[in-house]
């Protein structure tokens, strides 16, 4: 009934009202029914007159009631006829007066209470009717498809309210219908603009809502506006003008530079609001924030957001898993693994497949943790349901890479062979389960190549390229190294040239270094020198571009150390007999030298002395390199070759020992087999010499080890 809209006249449904009131209610009900009947008959003016007489309303208030009745019935055109003449300026002067009077009364200690101030109560009732009428007018225009008119009317109303009460409504009015109608109108404007496709105008409207009308937005509407605006900024596809806070800007305060920063800031403020209001949490807000921070590479900040969530918002295993993803993304694998171990404890979620696979992947990165990683993958496989081929393929992929890494740290030949077979079987099964996953095929090709099954490795990498796979640096290098292993150096050089043209300049380091080695194999040392010089120039530009105190974090496996380049260049100059340039390169390397590069540095000095004919000094250098790292294969091979040349037949047993040790570490080392054959020939053992030379011919040592290529699992 229409009478339900009035706060002054209400019927008692319980039947216990005082008799005089019942008489008044009957008279009013009769008049209201009469007005409603006339409205149904189309007599709008007569219906308006009946309402004004029944409820003691003025013309605008009666029109507002009639308009709302028609709107509720879905008669938008008739509702608009009733609401068309209502304008905000009809009650703006009164609004200014009562707002000022309420604030002045508060300063004097007089507080607003519902029902105690009849004049103010009557005004608020009338103002709420008219504000609702203005809001419904905009809604009717929106429903009728007259969006431009709806935007104009909504802006006119908001402009009028902003000019009338720039400091906002009194705090005591916060729960009145006046505040509710204003809140609804502020929320409505950007939504209409978005329906019209005016994204930039909608962004401006959202900003205006938050900067100028936040005082009238109810808590749910404020959250809705902030969330909607943040989503629009992140996914709207239109770059909004830079935010300007105007007079509310505080000097030195953070100002967003683009849409993404502004969207992230809004979502973080929303999270803080939700953390203060315990029991209320919108998971979609955190999902949008996670996406935005992840795409920006701000995983450390995302981790702080997870840590700041109130207990109970997320379960402990869910929080730990999410934190582990963040820390793994910034390279803090140890911290991430500790969190996953806690999550996988028997008292938490020991059967969570995603946590098991992430823990296994992190373990596979380190040789000393690979066995633990294999155990995680086996647990994951045991908990997978039948028919879940996708997750099973992922688990077998991780297991294969973990077994491969474990094999590289194995000291026993029998165990190494066993791990090699298991790794290959896991990767083959993973590839059969998901033939469309090129990362699995790529890692299978790497395993084939390390087992010197070069043709199979080449087929795998070709398959990846044929599927339109964006291989990047790793794929191009792998293809080039496989071609080099087949003695197709010219094709490898062409591949690397094409790769350099398609690769960003900051990622060209590994490609330039590999190409220099290919050019050396082609007998073009001067071109190799040019490639190394380009790489050194890249280091210099990178250092100039960096801000003080900032370090470049290259992608996994795409970082070349400058000390390695100086060592390589020294070897090239050594082959060219340019001793002075070689010495200069070694001096440059010595300044940059780290402990991990010490063995290689000493070995390069030994190679230089060897080329200069200073064989005794070369032997000392190789022995020093072995003293630093007893597993250094290159020094073992060099010592095995030099000792018997310098000391004659008496040194052959010692030379054999060095070469045998080198072949245990690298069974496919071509140079080691060649020198072993020379030793057998010097002893007159022709059959053994022939076998060694035959083994040297059958080996196709790549220019760089295939283990230098990072598996696709870790990209």
TrEMBL record:
<dbReference type="InterPro" id="IPR043376">
    <property type="entry name" value="NPG1-like"/>
</dbReference>
<dbReference type="Pfam" id="PF13432">
    <property type="entry name" value="TPR_16"/>
</dbReference>
<dbReference type="InterPro" id="IPR011990">
    <property type="entry name" value="TPR-like_helical_dom_sf"/>
</dbReference>
<protein>
    <submittedName>
        <fullName>Uncharacterized protein</fullName>
    </submittedName>
</protein>
<dbReference type="InterPro" id="IPR019734">
    <property type="entry name" value="TPR_rpt"/>
</dbReference>
């Amino acid at each position: 009934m229409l009478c339900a809209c009035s706060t002054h006249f209400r019927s008692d449904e319980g039947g216990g009202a005082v008799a005089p009131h019942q008489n008044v209610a009957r008279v009013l009900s009769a008049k209201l029914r009469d007005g409603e009947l006339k409205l149904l008959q189309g007599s709008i003016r007569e219906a308006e007159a009946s309402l004004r007489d029944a409820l003691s309303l003025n013309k605008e208030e009666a029109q507002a009631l009639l308009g709302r009745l028609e709107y509720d019935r879905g008669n938008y055109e008739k509702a608009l006829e009733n609401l068309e003449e209502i304008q905000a300026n009809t009650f703006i002067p009164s609004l200014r007066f009562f707002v000022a009077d309420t604030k002045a009364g508060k300063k004097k200690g007089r507080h607003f209470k519902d029902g105690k101030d009849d004049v103010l109560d009557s005004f608020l009732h009338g103002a709420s009717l008219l504000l609702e009428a203005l809001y419904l007018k905009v809604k009717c225009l929106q429903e009728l498809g007259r969006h431009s008119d709806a935007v104009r009317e909504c802006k006119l109303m908001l402009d009028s309210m902003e000019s009338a009460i720039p400091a906002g409504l009194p705090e005591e009015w916060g729960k009145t219908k006046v505040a509710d109608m204003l809140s609804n109108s502020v929320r409505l404007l950007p939504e209409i603009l978005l329906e019209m496709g005016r994204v930039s105008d909608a962004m401006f409207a959202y900003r205006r809502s938050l900067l100028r009308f936040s005082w009238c937005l109810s808590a749910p509407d404020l959250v809705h506006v902030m969330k909607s605006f943040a989503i629009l900024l992140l996914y709207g596809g239109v770059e909004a003008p830079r935010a300007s806070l105007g007079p509310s800007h505080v000097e030195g305060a953070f100002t967003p530079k683009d849409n993404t920063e502004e969207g992230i800031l809004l979502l973080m403020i929303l999270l803080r609001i939700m953390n203060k209001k315990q029991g209320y949490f919108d998971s979609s807000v955190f999902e949008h924030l996670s996406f935005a921070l992840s795409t920006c590479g701000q995983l450390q900040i995302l981790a702080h957001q997870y840590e700041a969530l109130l207990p109970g918002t997320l379960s402990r295993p869910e929080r730990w898993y999410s934190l582990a993803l963040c820390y793994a993304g910034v390279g803090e694998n140890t911290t991430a693994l500790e969190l996953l171990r806690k999550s996988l404890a028997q008292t938490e979620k020991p059967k969570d497949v995603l946590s098991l696979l992430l823990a296994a992947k992190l373990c596979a990165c380190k040789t000393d943790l690979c066995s633990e990683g294999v155990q995680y993958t086996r647990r994951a496989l045991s908990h997978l349901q039948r028919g879940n081929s996708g997750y099973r393929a992922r688990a077998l992929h991780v297991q294969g890479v973990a077994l491969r890494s474990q094999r590289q740290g194995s000291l026993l030949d029998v165990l190494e062979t066993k791990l090699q077979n298991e790794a290959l079987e896991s990767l083959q099964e993973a590839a059969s389960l998901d033939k469309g996953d090129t990362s699995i095929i790529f890692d299978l090709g790497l395993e084939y190549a390390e087992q010197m099954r070069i043709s199979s490795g080449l087929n795998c990498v070709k398959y990846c390229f044929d599927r339109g796979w964006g291989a990047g640096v790793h794929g191009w290098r792998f293809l080039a190294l496989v071609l080099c292993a087949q003695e197709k150096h010219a094709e490898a050089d062409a591949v690397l040239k094409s790769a350099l043209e398609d690769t960003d300049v900051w990622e060209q380091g590994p490609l330039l270094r590999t190409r220099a080695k290919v050019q050396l194999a082609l007998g073009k040392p001067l071109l190799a020198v040019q490639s190394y010089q380009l790489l050194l120039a890249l280091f210099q530009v990178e250092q100039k571009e960096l801000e003080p105190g900032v370090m470049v974090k290259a992608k996994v496996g795409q970082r070349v150390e400058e000390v390695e380049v100086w060592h390589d260049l020294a070897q090239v100059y050594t082959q060219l007999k340019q001793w002075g340039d070689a010495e200069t390169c070694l001096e440059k390397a010595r300044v940059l030298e780290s402990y991990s590069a010490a063995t290689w540095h000493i070995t390069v000095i030994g190679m230089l002395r060897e080329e200069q004919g200073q064989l005794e000094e070369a032997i000392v250098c190789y022995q020093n390199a072995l003293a630093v790292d007893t597993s250094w294969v290159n020094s073992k091979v060099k010592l095995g070759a030099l000792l018997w040349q310098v000391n004659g037949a008496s040194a052959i047993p010692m030379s054999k020992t060095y070469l045998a040790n080198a072949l245990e570490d690298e069974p496919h080392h071509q140079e080691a087999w060649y020198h072993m054959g020379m030793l057998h020939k010097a002893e007159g053992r022709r059959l053994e010499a022939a076998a060694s030379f035959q083994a040297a011919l059958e080996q196709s040592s790549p220019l760089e080890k295939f283990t230098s290529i990072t598996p696709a699992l870790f990209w």
